[in-house]
């Protein structure tokens, strides 16, 4: 009862380049905010305790598990999700490489991997296999064994040059 | 690589087009189970038992019902009570009564996490609050958590009303739901004559499929008593069947729309939340969506059975296997079915064994009701068999590939359950392993650290099921083809099915647009499981495409007013055999064809696809101080029949290997004595991450199946079978330690090293 009476908080934030004002229950995660309040469901819930990385987003240049951040913490922040990767001109090179290299099977972890991999390439344009595996260590994939994901990131890094 | 008998130059098959559903999946547009939002939708939550074994004395929902924002509360009293079952492990596995009780407990809870009540509220938080206010009074009973305990004389009984089947005899008050036996040849004589007999017993902990997407179920129960369900499942028709049974409705009153599925590996064949959302919707006449947390998924879904497997093999002085015995005890969990028939079928499947006996026991324990997990029960039995084979090779100094080749199962070899193999490719896999760069490479200790390295090899098998599939095709006015199918796409099957239709029609894969539709919109299609989808639904697509060509020829005959036998079709063009003027592209014939649009449909009900075999080679590096094991080189070799889309075939081989590596080294249900899983999070149930694995080399061997026009066998399951024994054998090679329990985690290795000293 008491929680239901807590007032929503007005949050001004920028998501994928779009500035918006949203009303958020102060106790919900940024993941729930994106999915339920903003209505973009590309960011996935796999565990809701920061261990699978399916909800990875970019928050002011850092990759975070959005299930471990409160929605109200989005105030004044710049958020990038998988929905922001492609442009009207086409897919991001990572998205294209994931398709060409068959780096997804079921696809539920793919948005998180893409966001993590983009942050990696933004920081290190030409990563080694080991660096790729380090950067993607926070994202679980149960289908691929990571082989084709690592290859896709390598391919995208070569093609972005 | 062995070529297909027709030695066809395929145009589409064997190429690597971008999967049709890929764009939605890399952009976040794809809608998975939890992504659905319906107008007026309520959120469901369930109450789960904190006890592994208890009788429900009473449930008080009054306080929850009074909470603001709560719309409905339910218990098992709101479900029809279904009849008793008479027999365990029959064809009718997953009987109606057990299906229903597993959705929501009526009298007894049989595992921690067993659902006892449900609630629908305006939002998730209110639903959780309400669930906490439902009071359940339990009489706590002693749980049984492993096969030894369950089979012991004074064990508490899970199902007092259940009639077990022990070698055809009806037995009451037992936790052994079924005991089956398969015998062939003179076993005693075989062992008597043997030059060497090796026996080992392995002990495997329960594991989970580990799919990243938790279960969910959304339903609307309308005023016409029709139930619409949206869910993430491996089989929308299986969900329709199960939901209609649990709710006691005709199947036609249930319509299941499959959402995209975020992994399953067998674990998304059972239903859990769908009937609960449906009943809550009946009470509110609003859509209800219920979702699981990750802990719920570990506590109450899956798992893959743990258990014990003893294998004994006798060989003659030349190394030929004379006799083999297996004693298989697997955990069914709370309700029968630990896939013991599959275990019996797989245990000696890689070898030509003249005399064998297999005893298999389906053992009830207070854990979640086990679900299929990628080649269900085959990894468990392969661990025992492949360990014994490796030990034989170590004792006698045999090359492990040569020994396997000497005893190899091939076309005509009698299988454990009776039938002889048709064409299979195990021999070709072993030969490919022998020729591989990996097998020929040297294996030295790490030159920098001095850490010891070891190499292991193992074989594995899955039989690849057939069953029912349906496909509809329609030729669009632009000459492209719409393909409608019922196989939910768990990893690229839209592409592999569309490619088979495209091959028949001689058009690019991109010109066949596949859609996975609801159960009202396509004929019955069995689950995406058993490695059947590319084989069976692909076969239906192949047949439907041939029928479409017949339709095209028929329409052309009408249009040109000539007889059908004067017309031929190839590569998207229909033409007269005699008059070169008479010629139409698909676009031309599809534009206003005489007598109506061009459509076709086909359905199949197939036998097994022809067994799939895999051989894996693992190189490990082990830190003797910490017991940490690193996989430094790994090669998966597999007879894939015919790879329709090679990238996704490789993906299955790599993914299966990775799951098997996790099973071997890290994964287990760590249970308290009270039957509570203590590591029900991804932090503590440690699945392999990107840093844990090397690149996984793949060698696709293609020995076409005799059962499919393109030789498709099914590829998803064999690759999870060899990793556990391959890694066990590699540990033995590195350290001289024969570990017989999974997971072969650091503490097990350091303890075994201490015992050795």
Quick tags:
heterodimer; A: 161 residues; alpha+beta; Ubiquitin-like (UB roll); DNA polymerase, domain 1; 6 helices; 5 strands; B: 757 residues; Aldehyde Oxidoreductase, domain 4; Aldehyde Oxidoreductase, domain 3; seven-stranded mixed sheet; 20 helices; 28 strands; 25% strand; globular; disordered N terminus
What do you see in this structure?
The complex is a heterodimer of chains A (161) and B (757). In chain A, a hairpin with a 2-residue loop joins strand 1 and strand 2 (18-24). Chain A has a five-stranded mixed sheet, sandwiched between helices. Chain A is globular. Chain A folds into two domains: 7-83, Ubiquitin-like (UB roll), CATH 3.10.20; 93-160, DNA polymerase, domain 1 (Orthogonal Bundle), CATH 1.10.150. Chain A starts with a helix and ends with a helix. The mean pLDDT of chain A is 96. In chain A, 35% of the residues lie in helices and 16% in strands. With 161 residues, chain A is of the alpha+beta class. By secondary structure, chain B is α+β, with helices and mostly antiparallel strands. Among the domains of chain B are: 22-30 and 465-606, 2-Layer Sandwich (Aldehyde Oxidoreductase, domain 4), CATH 3.30.365; 36-141 and 224-286, Aldehyde Oxidoreductase, domain 3 (Alpha-Beta Complex), CATH 3.90.1170.50; 425-459 and 610-757, Aldehyde oxidase/xanthine dehydrogenase, molybdopterin binding domain (Aldehyde Oxidoreductase, domain 4, 2-Layer Sandwich). In chain B, 27% of the residues lie in helices and 25% in strands. In chain B, the strands form six sheets. Chain B has a seven-stranded mixed sheet with strand order 3-5-1-14-11-12-13, with helices on both faces. Chain B has a seven-stranded mixed sheet with strand order 8-7-9-17-16-15-10, with helices on both faces. A four-stranded mixed sheet of chain B has the order 18-26-27-28, sandwiched between helices. The longest helix of chain B is centred in the C-terminal third of the chain and has 28 residues, at 533-560. Chain B is globular and about 85 Å long. The interface between A and B is large, with 62 and 64 residues.
């Amino acid at each position: 009862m008491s929680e239901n009476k807590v007032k929503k908080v007005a949050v001004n934030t920028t998501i994928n380049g779009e500035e918006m004002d949203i009303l958020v229950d102060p106790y919900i995660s940024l993941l729930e905010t994106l999915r339920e309040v903003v209505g973009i469901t590309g960011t996935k819930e796999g565990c809701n305790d920061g261990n699978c990385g399916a909800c990875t987003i970019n928050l002011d240049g850092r990759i975070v598990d959005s299930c471990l951040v409160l929605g109200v913490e989005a105030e004044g922040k710049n958020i990038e999700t998988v929905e922001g990767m492609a442009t009207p001109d086409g897919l991001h090179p990572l998205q294209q490489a994931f398709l060409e290299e068959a780096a997804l099977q079921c696809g539920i972890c793919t948005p998180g991997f893409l966001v993590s991999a983009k942050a990696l390439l933004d920081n290190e344009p030409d990563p080694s296999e080991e660096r790729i595996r380090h950067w993607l260590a926070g994202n679980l994939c149960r289908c691929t064994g990571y082989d084709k994901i690592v290859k896709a990131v390598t391919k995208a890094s070569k093609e972005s040059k | 690589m062995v070529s297909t008998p027709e030695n066809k130059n395929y145009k589409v098959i064997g190429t690597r087009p971008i999967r049709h559903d890929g764009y939605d999946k890399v952009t976040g547009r794809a809608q998975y189970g939890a992504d659905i939002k319906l107008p007026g939708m309520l959120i469901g939550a369930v109450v789960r038992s904190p006890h592994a074994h208890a009788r429900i004395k009473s449930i008080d929902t009054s306080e929850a019902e009074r909470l603001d924002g709560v719309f409905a509360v339910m218990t098992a009293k709101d479900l029809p009570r279904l009849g008793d079952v008479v027999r365990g492990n029959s064809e009718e596995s997953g009987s109606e009564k057990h299906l229903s009780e597993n959705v929501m407990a009526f009298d007894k809870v049989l595992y921690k996490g067993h659902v006892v009540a449900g609630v629908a509220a305006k939002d998730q938080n209110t639903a959780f609050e309400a669930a906490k206010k439902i009071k359940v009074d339990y009489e706590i009973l002693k749980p049984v958590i492993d096969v030894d305990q369950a089979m012991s004389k004074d064990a508490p009984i899970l199902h007092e009303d259940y009639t077990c089947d022990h070698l055809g005899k009806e037995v009451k008050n037992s936790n052994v739901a079924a005991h089956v036996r398969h015998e062939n040849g003179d076993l005693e004589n075989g062992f008597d004559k043997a030059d060497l007999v090796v026996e080992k017993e392995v002990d495997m902990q329960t594991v989970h499929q580990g799919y990243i997407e938790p279960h969910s179920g959304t339903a609307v129960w309308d005023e016409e008593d029709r139930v619409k369900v949206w869910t993430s499942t491996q089989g929308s028709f299986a969900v329709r069947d199960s939901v209609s049974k649990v709710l006691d409705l005709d199947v036609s009153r249930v319509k299941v729309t499959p959402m995209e599925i975020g992994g399953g590996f067998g674990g998304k064949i059972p239903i859990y939340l769908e009937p609960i959302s449906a009943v809550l919707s009946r009470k509110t006449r609003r859509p209800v969506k219920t979702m699981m947390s990750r802990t719920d998924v570990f506590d109450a879904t899956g798992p893959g059975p743990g258990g014990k497997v003893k294998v004994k093999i006798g060989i003659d002085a030349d190394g030929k296997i004379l006799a083999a015995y297996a004693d298989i005890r697997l955990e069914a969990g709370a309700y029968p079915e630990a896939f013991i028939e599959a275990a019996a079928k797989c245990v000696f499947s890689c070898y030509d064994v003249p005399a064998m006996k297999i005893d298999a026991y389906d053992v009830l324990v207070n854990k979640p009701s086990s679900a299929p997990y990628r080649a269900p029960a085959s990894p468990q039995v392969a661990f025992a068999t492949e360990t014994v084979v490796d030990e034989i090779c170590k004792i006698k100094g045999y090359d492990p590939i040569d020994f396997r080749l000497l005893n190899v199962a091939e076309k005509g070899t009698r299988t454990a359950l009776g039938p002889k193999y048709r064409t299979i490719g195990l021999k070709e896999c072993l030969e490919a392993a022998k020729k591989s760069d990996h097998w020929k490479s040297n294996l030295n200790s790490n030159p920098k650290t001095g850490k010891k390295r070891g190499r292991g090899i193992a074989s594995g098998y899955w039989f690849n099921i057939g069953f029912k599939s349906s496909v509809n095709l329609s030729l669009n006015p632009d000459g492209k083809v719409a393909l409608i199918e019922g196989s939910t796409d768990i990893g690229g099957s839209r592409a592999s099915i569309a490619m088979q239709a495209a091959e028949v029609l001689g058009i690019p894969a991109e010109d066949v647009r596949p859609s996975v539709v609801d159960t009202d919109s396509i004929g019955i299609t069995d689950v995406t499981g058993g490695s059947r989808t590319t084989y069976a639904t692909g076969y239906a697509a192949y047949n439907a495409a041939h029928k479409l060509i017949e339709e095209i020829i028929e329409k052309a005959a009408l249009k040109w007013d000539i007889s059908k036998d004067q017309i031929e079709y190839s590569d998207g063009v229909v033409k007269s055999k005699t008059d070169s003027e008479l010629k139409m592209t698909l676009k031309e014939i599809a534009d206003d064809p005489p007598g109506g649009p061009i459509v076709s449909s086909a359905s199949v009900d197939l036998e097994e696809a022809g067994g799939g075999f895999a051989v894996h080679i693992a190189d490990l590096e082990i830190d003797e101080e910490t017991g940490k094991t690193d996989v430094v080189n790994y090669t998966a070799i597999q007879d894939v029949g015919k790879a329709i889309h090679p990238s996704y075939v490789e993906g299955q081989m790599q993914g299966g290997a990775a799951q098997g590596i996790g099973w071997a080294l890290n994964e287990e249900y760590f249970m308290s004595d009270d039957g509570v899983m203590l590591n029900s999070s991804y932090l503590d149930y440690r699945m392999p991450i990107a840093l844990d694995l090397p690149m996984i080399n793949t060698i696709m061997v293609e020995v076409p199946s005799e059962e499919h026009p393109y030789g498709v066998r099914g590829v998803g399951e064999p690759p999870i079978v060899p990793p556990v024994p391959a890694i066990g054998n590699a540990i033995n090679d590195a350290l001289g330690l024969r570990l017989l329990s999974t997971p072969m985690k650091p503490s097990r290795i350091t303890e075994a090293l201490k015992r050795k000293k």
